[in-house]
Amino acid sequence: MRTALAVLLVAAAPAAAAPDLSPRDRGDLAVRARDILKRHCAACHGDKPRRGDVSVLDHPKLTAPAYPVPLVNPADPPKSLLLDLLRDGSMPPGGRPRPTNEEIKTLTAWVTAGAPGYPHTFDDRYAADTAFADWRTKDDADKPALRYLSLAHLVRDGAAPPDLRAAEEKLRAALQRASGKDVPLVPADPAATVFRLDLRNAGWDKGKLFDRVEAGGPRNNAHALTAFDVILLEYPVADATWTGDLGKNLTRLTGVRKVPVIRGDWLAAALAPTAPLTTDVRKLVELLTPGDPPCGPRPGRFFGGPAAGPPESWYGADADDPAFKAEVVVGEGFQTRRAEVRAREPFKLRVTATRPLRLLALHVQSDGYTKVQVLERTAITAGATLLGPRMSTPFSVTPSGDEDSNTDYFVLFASDVDVPAPTVLRSRHNPLCEDRWRQPISRFLFEPADAKADPPRLIRRVVPVTVQK
Questions:
Q1: Nearest to 202 by CA among 278, 293, 139, 294
Q2: Are 303 and 367 in contact (CB under 8 A)?
Q3: Which helix H or strand E contains 29, and what residues bound it?
Q4: Burial code of 190-211, b = ≥16 C-beta within 10 A, e = fewer?
Q5: 365: phi then psi, degrees, rounded to nearest 5
Q6: Which residues pair with 387 in a beta bridge?
Q7: Phi, psi for residue 458 in degrees, rounded to 5
Q8: Taking the domains of the chain in order of start, what are their residue ranges?
Q9: Among candidate residues 194, 204, 265, the one with its CA nearest the CA of residue 230
Q10: What distance in Å separates the CA atoms of residue 389 and residue 381, rounded to the nearest whole number?
Q11: In angstroms, rounded to a whole number, what is the distance separating the alpha carbons of residues 67 and 81?
Q12: Closest alpha carbon to 207 in 372, 425, 446
């Protein structure tokens, strides 16, 4: 009788007007409401409801119309039975912990705001599906410039809701810092955890910023790599295999790598004020200004001070396969392992494998200049092998600049089949600035059309060589 009376009372109450909230405010309400409902209701009304057939994690069903009163009636708390059951103590049953008064106020505010939606799980798949659902509704003329950033992975079951407002503010600040512009971020989901980025607003949509300098092309063979593609090259989260509509359209959604969505917290950190990537991206955008090419950035990635090392994505597979090891060796017969060498001191690379492998190497100098490194052999057998640039010839490195020491890097790629030749690129910054320590930007990539092996499956090792004057 009490429930019937409650139904009649709430049915007679007028609906409150939905407040005018920002997308972030609405998104935070959705995330907090999901957290409260999952903690207090999902044990019985979750993935496998033990009582009733409604899951609080199924937002469409939870907010579906029902007679005489729906569980959640968006923008109408008096006509939302769920709130009544929580307030009068009918739910949760059996002495289970009840939501606090503040939590019930949060749920009421969520319903008042229109009960903005949330997914069953905040994960990378949800972010990718959200991105594609948004992308396919846009005009064909706009689609090539649209990319997506996500904070969805920060919402973790069993943990308190994250401060998404602070994370979003850091992301917006990073985009402004790297582009020099106030770049709009448009939420693509009701929870405001996935955002649409129009590269045109950041000046990151134009190519022909680089020339191919190796891989068989002439010096003035322009490459279509954009500033955003440079960011993608450093993204450390592994590429994923996507099926269905998303898989079919993925190459239209992404740039040089099959990454449909970039994690926003990673991007905010990668574009920190002192991060070399921030400077590189800003300097690349300068190339779009009419007139003589400007000078490149001062070497920062590996030059002087504590060595930052190559981008993490270059050696992301290091811990995955112990079949291949590499180290610097010096001395008579090149048997002494050492991480530091003197200027022009002969050294070799000792590589150890448990099976035959094919090799390819890059040499990343301390000033960031990158080139394909010739090796005396490109195939090794099981066991230890000493490698130099040519038969019976060791390596030697001359330090750059005025520092007491610099660190160069040998990036080794190994595979059971032939390793595809990478494309090495140099930005079109003015080469006359090099004597003033203003270098063009170097990058490399494995272009899919030329690949004989799947680059993500390559074994990668980075061997640092610190050179003391």
A1: 278
A2: yes
A3: helix 23-41
A4: bbbbbbbbbbebbbbbbeebbb
A5: -75, 165
A6: 349
A7: -70, 145
A8: 23-113, 124-287, 324-468
A9: 204
A10: 18
A11: 11
A12: 425
Q: Which helix (H) or strand (E) holds 2?
A: helix 2-12
Which CA distances in Å does 431 have to 296, 439, 441?
A: 8, 7, 11
Which CATH number is 324-468 given?
A: 2.60.40
pLDDT tens, residue order, the chain (469 aa) = 333 333 333 333 444 455 689 999 999 999 999 999 999 988 788 776 565 578 899 999 999 998 678 999 999 999 999 999 999 988 888 778 889 999 999 999 999 999 999 999 999 889 989 998 999 999 999 998 999 999 999 999 999 999 999 999 999 999 999 999 999 999 999 999 999 999 999 999 988 899 988 654 445 688 888 999 889 888 876 555 555 555 556 555 556 666 778 999 999 999 999 888 899 999 999 999 888 889 888 765 443 333 334 444 444 444 456 778 899 999 999 999 998 999 999 999 999 999 999 999 988 887 777 888 999 999 999 999 999 998 889 999 887 666 678 888 898 888 888 887 788 888 999 888 866 668 888 888 776 554 444 554 678 888 889 888 7
Which pair of tokens denotes residue 343?
């200027």
